[in-house]
Amino acid sequence: MNQEIRNLEPKALWNKFADLNAVPRPSKKEERVIAFMMDFGKQLGLETSKDAVGNVIIKKPATAGLENRKTIVMQSHLDMVHQKNNDTTFDFDTQGIEMYVDGDWVRAKGTTLGADNGLGVATIMAVLESKDIPHPAIEALFTIDEETGMTGAMGLKGGLLNGEILLNLDTEEDDEIDIGCAGGVDVTATRSYEEEPTPENSLAFIITVKGLKGGHSGMDIHKGLGNANKIMNRLLFDGFENFGLQIAEINGGSLRNAIPRESVAKVIISAIYEGAFQLDMQNIIDNIKTEFKTTEPNLTIEITETELPEKVMDLGIQEGLIRAIYAAHNGVYRMSADMEDLVETSNNIAKVTVKEGTITVQCLTRSSVETSKFDLANALRSAFELMGCEVTFGGSYPGWTPNVNSPILDVLVNIYEKQNGAKPNVVACHAGLECGILGTNYPNMDMISFGPTIHGAHSPDERASISSAQKYWKFVLKILESIPVKK
């Protein structure tokens, strides 16, 4: 299966991607991929090291004739988002990604592909291994845990790198050159609640929301996609208001940086309302599916009868939770006033868990403006504190302020125009690139971000364009031989 991938052009890139995807590499469990990368550098005879937090640095001298060029840092992150379809049996901790070719796309069988940021990592590996690619002195930086906290970038100390230019290979449209990105903060609401015995003469149901596209909670947040937690909450709100529905459990969403695709709740109602409840729920389901018929054509909402739970939530706490989730903002909060079509601030209600006396709601709030980020975070905090939750902010990281006068930007724009006969889109993105964080300890480094076209990142629909990878590889090779001379 993966041999099909290895035969794709450019082979240097796709072979390294296949090698990398054979190594399990979930965020916060990167021990195997760190060891893999350390072995890779040492087998090439290159200076290879690991810093205190687990980032890997491999240094390669300039090729003949380019010794006078500025040293560059080529950077990508080792970890990948692990998501799979409900009907896919797969163990991310032990299995390599199973890939296949679908027309112009490389996909994975029912899971995320790992092109984010595996194609960037594979690019750097191919350059490090090459014997015929002209390049200046390279410091390859492979960071860890980008997807669940940016702890690799945050833990990188100053003084470990000498490069003057950083090429971050973690964007997902091949006609874009990124010069800025959003920062983020995790907003987590928790509280305990009392459980009470299930009333007599009750019926229990499982409500399932599934079939949503999901996707990247930054790059896809403006697309109007369905959020399983918000859709579920509409059903619970109506059931509670009209039929006294009580919640036994909720399990919605999985990862903070992925738009939630699925939510499952176990609820009860009084048996006397069975017919009316089913009819009312079907009306709401029909309305929701009509609203999302264009953006979410595969949305499925099922209600099936199940065994009665022994206990359910206290009604007072339940009402507060349902109203708080309804009030909590999800999606785009503000568009940028300075860059056309750029989302400035947004929130993703990523995960809702209610079980055995504990409520947890996890959100990821993003913004390219630090004050706006905390404005929205405080709005969320207020909504959940009003129902008695303890709300914490964690994992805050800064955005990357655009520099339109970047010298390396001029180099990339000129190369792109000559190769493609059109201007690239110079943009800032609503995602958490590591450049802003790395810039805190390396403030004088000229930074740029670009990459091949990848769609559906952070979801099992993730796919990488083969033709775009060829275009991107050609771009990379020309950039490497065009790095400016040292001053």
Automatic annotation (TrEMBL):
Similarity field: Belongs to the peptidase M20C family.
Lineage of producing organism: Bacteria, Pseudomonadati, Bacteroidota, Flavobacteriia, Flavobacteriales
GO cellular component: cytosol
Protein name as it appears in the record: Cytosol non-specific dipeptidase
Pfam families registered for this protein in UniProt: M20_dimer, Peptidase_M20
Peptidase M20 dimerisation domain mapped to chain residues: 208-292
Organism: Flavobacterium orientale
GO MF term (any one): metallodipeptidase activity
Listed cofactors: Co(2+); Zn(2+)
Known EC number: 3.4.13.18
Gene Ontology biological process terms from the UniProt entry: proteolysis
Superkingdom of this protein's organism: Bacteria
